[in-house]
Design goal:
Elements lengths: L4 H4 L1 E4 L3 H23 L10 E6 L2 H4 L6 H9 L12 H9 L3 E4 L3 E4 L2 H4 E3 L11 E7 L5 E11 L2 E4 H4 L21 H11 L3 H9 L5 H23 L15 H10 L6 H17 L3 E4 L8 H12 L4 H21 L4 H4 L5 H15 L4 H13 L17 H20 L9 H14 L12 H7 L1
Parallel strand pairs: 2-5
Antiparallel strand pairs: 1-9, 2-6, 3-4, 6-7, 7-8
């Protein structure tokens, strides 16, 4: 299965790719479906139409903290995450929240009042996936005239009910056989690299240009890096209290200033934490971030890459190779397991991001394909079993600090791999399989529902 780097890395807004970006995309998709039905006269607009959205499972339990209801409202008014990166979303939400209708084709008014028509259903989740949402359109007699069920499956990806049972992961992608180097496992990736004497980044680029031009790929990867760079630097200069009611204080700016003022040599760990926390404080504030591969883990890859560029003089070509290598690893994890905290816990979010960052860093430091695979495996291995238990359903505690530690593990894994020859006991494929099995067996309390772990410990305190 081929998953593009441009799908793994998407510019959007915080605080969550699965709970904010995905539901926004789903709401816009349902709005488009309604419009298509009206255009084809399948819906009688002489009747007063009303839309409702029911959030299920993890989307219900942590939806308030993850801004899921606000995301649905934005999507129902035609907005998408990539359109809002430079927008004051809070002001926009304040304007839309009390609006009681949606206007289509500049003339058709459909009832939709977010406080009433977005329903948090705390009963059993849908069996197919914990991040389910049901959109329904009713006529004036309260008869159901159109319905669609969507699932937010991580990283901003969505699937419909019809789609989700057709694929194994479930993911959206294309058959690998359509591409020049169709590796769908770490083992086949290693074999192809050896057979063709190519790097992972070279094979990934060759696959990408089957879908888009090299110039367009380079432009979009550059935009992704610029967005990551801006996230780090915006977070490093911003202070204040994060929204949501936990009264979490931004710390990245103060930490960064301490590092600049320190006369003693500063550890890479401190820099990495400052950079990662800066990004995730921006995410928690609902500002622009890049899914890498998710919003909850958005700080790991930018932190490691920012460190490499600014402390190790990384070049533009290094940046591109880092992102392509990281995306190749992220695609394998998403294909063979999951990057969704609601499916497999935080091992699928920060663990995946750490593996991707370790691979990218190892590659641009001159690592062999075997060393890169080992770096990714080590980083992922030491996140196995990590739960997703956000306090108050907010992407703040433990998420912000956790990105710093994920970046440190990535940096360490790459450093160790570069000192060895790539021979190791546990293959990356087996580690990904272990992550999936661990996630399958993990209690739902620890998979982005805030019903266990730190989330309830904080309440008890």
């Amino acid at each position: 299965m081929f998953i593009s780097a441009l799908d793994i890395f998407k510019i959007g807004i915080g605080p969550s790719s699965s709970h904010t970006m995905g539901p926004m995309v789903a709401a816009k998709a349902f709005l488009n479906t309604v419009q298509d039905e009206i255009n084809h006269s399948a819906l009688n607009t002489a009747n007063s139409l009303q839309i409702k959205c029911t959030l299920k499972g993890s989307l219900a339990f942590t939806g308030h903290g993850h801004a899921t209801d606000r995301a649905v409202a934005l999507g129902m008014h035609g907005y998408l995450p990539e359109n809002l990166a430079q927008t004051n979303v809070q002001n926009l939400i304040s304007e839309l929240w009390e609006t009681q209708s949606i206007t289509l084709n500049n003339r058709i008014s459909i009832g939709f009042y977010p406080p009433k028509d977005i329903i948090f259903d705390y009963k059993a989740p849908l069996p197919q996936h914990p991040n389910g949402m049901i959109f329904e359109c009713f006529n004036k007699d309260n008869q159901l005239v159109l319905s669609e069920t969507y699932f937010s499956i991580g990283g901003g990806f969505i699937s419909t009910l019809a789609e989700i049972d057709k694929v194994e992961a479930p993911i959206k992608g294309q058959p690998a056989s359509q591409f020049k180097y169709p590796f769908n496992s770490a083992a086949s990736m290693l074999e192809m690299a050896e057979e063709h004497n190519m790097s992972i980044a070279e094979m990934k680029q060759a696959n990408e240009v089957c879908e888009t031009s090299l110039n367009e790929l380079n432009n979009q990867l550059n935009q992704i890096w610029q967005a990551m760079n801006n996230c780090v630097e915006n977070g490093l200069k911003t202070e204040g209290i994060l929204p949501g009611g936990l009264h979490v204080k931004r710390r990245a700016k103060n930490l960064y200033q301490h590092l600049l003022d320190d006369d003693n040599p500063v550890s890479s760990n401190d820099w990495l934490c400052a950079y990662a926390m800066a990004v995730n404080e921006e995410n928690a504030a609902g500002h622009m971030v890049v899914t890498a591969p998710t919003n909850g883990a958005a700080g790991v890859i930018p932190a490691v890459l920012y460190y490499f560029v600014n402390h190790e003089n990384g070049s533009p070509e290094d940046i591109k190779n880092f992102l392509l290598t990281a995306a190749a690893i992220g695609g394998l994890i998403k294909h063979k397991s999951s990057i969704s905290g609601a499916e497999v816990g935080c091992q699928g979010e920060v663990g995946s991001a750490s593996a991707m960052a370790a691979a990218g860093l190892c590659a641009v430091r001159g690592g062999t394909v075997m060393q890169i695979e080992q770096a990714a495996e080590m980083a992922l291995e030491h996140h196995l079993g990590m739960t997703c238990d956000p306090v108050k359903g907010l992407v703040q505690v433990p998420c912000i600090e956790r990105n710093g530690f994920g970046a440190i593990k990535a940096f360490t894994a790459a450093s160790i791999a570069l000192r060895e020859d790539g021979e190791h006991i546990m293959p990356l494929d087996k580690c990904i399989a272990a992550m999936k099995k661990t996630g399958d067996e993990m209690s739902h309390k620890y998979k982005e529902t805030s019903l266990g772990g730190l989330a309830v410990t904080w309440v008890e305190c």
